[in-house]
């Protein structure tokens, strides 16, 4: 079996079928499927997802977007940052380090990371060195964002 590692996930029918096993399956996946069916994107286009395969099975994944600096309302300096979401490890594979492997991969870009955690996962994020970003009513409506900052990056003052 290949060494277990984080890899970019391509958009194809096989990947989208694998995505159905994850709880956080929704509009993002459905719109990728539609784009594929309508030939708007090619089979094997790169997706914003990264994942871990165990043998031929996708067992963990996350979506990771680079947000342009002009939309950076969170970190100082106002450079680009990463938005991490849909981090999920399939139940049989939890607590074996795969979640951490994905987060470490994201940290490897040396950009600040923002995430909006699921209920009950705060302990994990704390363990990964993520802090609560101060809550800004207009900016954060419906979210309780957490952030990780590489050295030299601060949180923007929430207005
Ligand atoms: C939250 C999630 C992404 C973590 O991934 P994982 O692969 O299970 O976590 P890891 O094995 O990489 O854990 C890394 C560290 O975080 C800790 N940790 C993991 N989940 C935790 C949790 N819910 N609370 C506190 N600590 C947690 C681990 O014990 C480990 O610490 P250690 O290095 O001291 O042993 C994964 O469990 C998941 O997808 N869960 C889906 C459901 C969910 O959100 N559950 C939350 C708990 S109900």
UniProtKB/TrEMBL annotation:
<keyword id="KW-0808">Transferase</keyword>
<protein>
    <recommendedName>
        <fullName>Uncharacterized N-acetyltransferase N781_12760</fullName>
        <ecNumber>2.3.1.-</ecNumber>
    </recommendedName>
</protein>
<keyword id="KW-0012">Acyltransferase</keyword>
<feature type="domain" description="N-acetyltransferase">
    <location>
        <begin position="9"/>
        <end position="151"/>
    </location>
</feature>
<dbReference type="GO" id="GO:0016747">
    <property type="term" value="F:acyltransferase activity, transferring groups other than amino-acyl groups"/>
</dbReference>
<dbReference type="Pfam" id="PF00583">
    <property type="entry name" value="Acetyltransf_1"/>
</dbReference>
<dbReference type="InterPro" id="IPR016181">
    <property type="entry name" value="Acyl_CoA_acyltransferase"/>
</dbReference>
<dbReference type="InterPro" id="IPR000182">
    <property type="entry name" value="GNAT_dom"/>
</dbReference>
<dbReference type="InterPro" id="IPR017274">
    <property type="entry name" value="YlbP"/>
</dbReference>
């Amino acid at each position: 079996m290949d060494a277990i590692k984080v890899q970019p996930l391509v958009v194809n029918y096989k990947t989208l079928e694998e995505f159905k096993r994850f709880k956080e399956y929704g509009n993002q996946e459905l719109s990728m499927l539609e784009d594929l069916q309508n030939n708007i994107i090619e089979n094997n286009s790169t997706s914003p997802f990264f994942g871990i395969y165990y043998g031929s099975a996708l067992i963990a994944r996350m979506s990771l977007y680079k947000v342009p600096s002009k939309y950076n309302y969170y970190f100082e300096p106002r450079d680009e940052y990463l938005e991490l979401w849909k981090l999920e490890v399939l139940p049989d594979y939890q607590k074996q380090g795969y979640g951490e492997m994905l987060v470490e991969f994201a940290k490897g870009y040396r950009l600040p990371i923002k995430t909006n955690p699921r209920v009950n996962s705060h302990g994990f994020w704390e363990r990964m060195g993520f802090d609560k970003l101060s809550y800004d009513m207009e900016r954060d409506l419906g979210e309780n964002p957490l952030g990780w900052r590489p050295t030299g990056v601060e949180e923007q003052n929430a207005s």
